[in-house]
Amino acid sequence: MPRSVNHVASRARRKKILKFAKGFWGRKKNVWTVAKNAIEKGWLYAYRDRKAKKREFRKLWIQRINAGARLHGMSYSQFMGGVHKKGIQLNRKVLADLAMNHPEAFKSVVEQVK
Predict the structure, then answer these.
(1) Residue 4 has what DSSP assignment?
(2) pTM of the model
(3) Over 22-66, what HEC string results?
(4) pLDDT digit string (tens) for 82-99?
(5) 11 partner at 20 to 30 Å CA-CA among 5, 26, 62, 78?
(6) 3-class SS of residue 73
């Protein structure tokens, strides 16, 4: 009895991976084994960096709030402590946006905290 090989399914699997490799440079886009390794590595980076992105943005917001607070004679920790003590319901993302793009609104928040 001849050996049965499901070429349709295996070819479809390979085509799916090669479709993900579109836009890669050199053999990474059209050689099966190289493309498969590159795609899997890329997925690992994507998974890792979805977590890292959150940390990076929080760091950026803290730096912006700190810079804005220091313009008004406060440190970041004093400012955030005051924000929590006063019960102001603004998160770091919003405070950073105020500090960067709306300094007069941020100043009014600082005045409330002082």
Answers:
(1) P
(2) 0.77
(3) CCCCHHHHCCHHHHHHHHHHHHHHHHHHHHHHHHHHHHHHHHHHH
(4) 999 999 999 999 999 999
(5) 26
(6) coil
Domains and CATH numbers, the chain: 25-113 (1.10.1900.20)
For residue 91, what are its two tokens? 């998160």
Instruction: Give the C-alpha separation, 27 to 16, whole Å.
Output: 16
Residue 63's pLDDT is: 97
CA 55 distance to own-chain centroid: 8
Handedness of CA 46, 10, 19, 37 (dihedral sign): positive
Q: What is the pLDDT of residue 4?
A: 85
